[in-house]
From TrEMBL:
Source domain of life: Bacteria
PANTHER family in UniProt: DUF951 DOMAIN-CONTAINING PROTEIN, HYPOTHETICAL CYTOSOLIC PROTEIN
InterPro entries the record matches: DUF951 (IPR009296)
Name listed for the protein in its UniProt record: DUF951 domain-containing protein
Family annotation (Pfam families): DUF951
Organism of this sequence: Bhargavaea ginsengi
């Protein structure tokens, strides 16, 4: 299985929606843990990379190279 490619600023869709109703999250930190921010209410959550890879459904949009 190939590693998933994502970076800071990418917007991803998670399997379960946030309680605010939005299902899109922006990646704001990468490392052993990944911090994502809800695009609806701006709430941020830090989760382990392993859990993030299990819960991520698909990539919605890539960040621009200049960011």
């Amino acid at each position: 299985m190939e590693p998933k490619q994502y970076g800071i600023g990418d917007v991803v869709e998670m399997k379960k929606p946030h309680p605010c109703g939005t299902n899109a999250w922006k990646i704001i930190r990468l490392g052993a843990d990944i911090r994502i921010k809800c695009t609806g209410c701006q709430h941020s959550v830090m989760i382990p990379r392993r859990d993030f890879e299990k819960k991520m459904k698909k990539m919605l949009e890539r960040a621009e190279a200049g960011e």
